[in-house]
Amino acid sequence: MSEPTPHDGATPDTVTYDVVVLGAGAVGENAADRAGRLGLSVAVVEHELVGGECSYWACMPSKALLRPGAVLAAARAVPGAAELVQGTLDPAAVLARRDVFTSHWDDHGQVEWLDSAGIALLRGTARFTGPKELLVSGEGGDTRLIARHAVVVATGSEAVVPPVAGLAEAQPWTSREATAVEDVPARLAILGGGVVGVEMAVAYRDLGAEVTLLVRGDRLLTAAEPFAAEEVAAGLRDLGVDLRFGTSATAVRRDADGVHLTVTGPQGDGQVDADEVLVATGRRPRTADLGLDVLGLDAGGALEVDDALQVTGVADGWLFAVGDVTGRTATTHQGKYDARVVGDVVAARFSGEDAAEQAAAERDAGEWTRYRATADHAAVPQVVFSRPEVAWVGRTEQEARDAGLQVRAVQYAIGSVAGASVAADGYAGTAQVVLDEDRGVIVGATFTGPDAAELLQAATVAVVGEVPLDRLWHAVPAYPTVSEVWLRLLETAGL
């Protein structure tokens, strides 16, 4: 491995690595690991916990909060087990288990992994001072950091607090506070009907809170199929969530009695009282403090990249970006996929002539190569761990039509499949595939229902592999499993 060295003629506070990765979250870790596999020296810069948002404030703690309620609902749907289930969740036990998944917000284990992988860690905040040059400011002072070959920006995103009068002063929660809570509030108001808003509405109802979900538009989960959004809305109401569409907060104030939101909606103006308010109205790339202006880039905006994750508009091809910061992906799993792509591109391009030639050859070989993030365009998987769960991949029916494809949507009630009836009494869910009629392949799929996420990988393989329907017909699902819905979908499609 190429060793880090002091920069020629510089002070001892200057250090050089072949590759520098900004951000040590799950995405940055993957990019750093792949970039160093052919011998390049790699350093990551992180000012918070190594492991990032997913490990401590998003994916892992949120799913740890959601899983107990899903298990309880599953047990109650099976006679013989249902009779043994009494009472509600134990919030203290749920939070204690959540703490295990976050390692009690201690990144010691993640730091050990970096050490074992030969990746250097610089604690602090980084700011560009020129091409391939950064100033890292930490508790121990400043360090001048030079990248011989490449810099990868993987700084993620941050929650946006909308400019509602009094909201910022009311000290609202974002997803961080919601997933790291120590005491469950009796009343929670949530602004926003996206993934965070929906999932936290479920989690806090399970934990015993009264939840009011305020949605400015007329539906939830705008990226999902409309039928899936409707099923989730019905599920939230069944859980006892006060779900209000077309409703906005116009003012917020906090006093000794809690948080008070002035709202306007179909029924006119009113007030929602809560103990805490969670803002889940969107996120923005975390780029404002990176000094991108010295590179001629927009400070605070997303970094536009090509399919090799190289930032466009920067000369000499040394700057890359990956994950939320690009505006292309908004999930950890897709960000990690992009990180594997960018890591392989950087390793091949800069670790030697033979590797660079190999990378160039593979990039030119076809659309589906590990040196391109092809899946970002039409094969992105997404799961919302609501009740019912929603899982989808590829294009929705409307997105496919907007792309000029001649498509047909085929639906089937999952509860009609034998395996679903075994899994749960009254199993309710829907499967839909979007068929490209010209090519005879699936370009999108959506599933709703208990554990719908487990159906998603087969759909992802079908979409990415562009498996012809007449070939997919021979992929026989086991009986009796929920996956038998694939057979029913193909039969409904006319095969």
Automatic annotation (TrEMBL):
Its cofactor is FAD. Residues 17-334 form the FAD/NAD(P)-binding domain. GO terms for molecular function: dihydrolipoyl dehydrogenase (NADH) activity; flavin adenine dinucleotide binding. Keywords: FAD, Flavoprotein, NAD, Nucleotide-binding. One of its GO terms (biological process) is 2-oxoglutarate metabolic process. NAD(+) binds at G192, G193, G194, V195, V196, G197, V198, E199, G282. The keyword Flavoprotein applies. Belongs to the class-I pyridine nucleotide-disulfide oxidoreductase family. This is NAD(P)/FAD-dependent oxidoreductase. The lineage of its organism: Bacteria, Bacillati, Actinomycetota, Actinomycetes, Micrococcales.
